[in-house]
């Protein structure tokens, strides 16, 4: 066994490292994809917490309505978007394909669909702000429709990248499970 500061094994100059074992590239890909998805999930959690805080402050009237507006209708179903993220996190430890697929499907249902509805719901107010320069709802002095469109754009990008990386990870999961079955001899071929 070699040590950093100790003597080197006799008969070697340290250049014979090519034969040593390395982590296979497809396992490195899995770790990289899981890491990227986790970053996106944590970004989503931050967005989710900000929307939740805005909803709580708006409903409990902790601040006046000229500081924090009441939430738009699309924000209520978007609160369910935390479920796909949790399913995605649960799929990682054992490479659970069914949790990952459920996460991807429910991301479309609970995350992307409310964002599309929100963009459509806020469009007339954005049009009024653009044409006439009038806004009636505010979040800390900024037009609520502008702030919430920014949230919609960022959240759509987060969920889009999350779905992209999840699809790549799903492809990796299914390809490695097929290889494991072939190696173990469980698959029967005539």
Topology as a string of helices (H) and strands (E):
HHHHEEH
Beta-strand segment tally: 2
Count of DSSP-assigned helices? 5
* Strand order within the widest beta sheet: 1-2
Structure report:
The protein has 190 residues and is mainly alpha-helical. Helix content is 67%, strand content 2%. Strand 1 and strand 2 (142-143) form a beta hairpin. The model has no long low-confidence stretch (mean pLDDT 85).
Question: Care to give the gist of this entry?
Answer:
The chain is an all-alpha fold.
List the defining traits of the structure above.
190 residues; mainly alpha
Write the layout of secondary structure elements.
Blueprint: H1 25-60, H2 75-78, H3 82-91, H4 97-132, E1 138-139, E2 142-143, H5 144-184
Antiparallel strand pairs: 1-2
């Amino acid at each position: 066994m070699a040590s950093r500061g100790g003597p080197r094994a006799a008969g070697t100059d340290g250049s014979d490292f090519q034969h040593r074992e390395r982590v296979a590239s497809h396992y490195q890909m899995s770790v990289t994809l899981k890491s990227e998805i986790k970053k996106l999930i944590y970004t989503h959690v931050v967005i989710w917490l900000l929307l939740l805080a805005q909803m709580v402050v708006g409903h409990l009237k902790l601040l006046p309505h000229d500081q924090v507006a009441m939430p738009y209708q699309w924000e209520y179903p978007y609160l369910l978007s935390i479920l796909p993220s949790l399913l995605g996190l649960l799929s990682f430890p054992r490479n659970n394909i069914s949790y990952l697929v459920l996460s991807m499907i429910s991301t479309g249902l609970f995350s992307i669909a409310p964002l599309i509805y929100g963009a459509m719901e806020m469009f007339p107010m954005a049009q009024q702000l653009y044409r006439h320069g009038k806004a009636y709802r505010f979040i800390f002095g900024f037009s609520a429709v502008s702030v919430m469109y920014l949230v919609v754009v960022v959240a759509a990008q987060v969920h889009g990248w999350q779905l992209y990386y999840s699809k790549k990870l799903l492809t990796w999961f299914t390809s490695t499970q097929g290889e494991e079955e072939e190696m173990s001899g469980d698959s029967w071929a005539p």
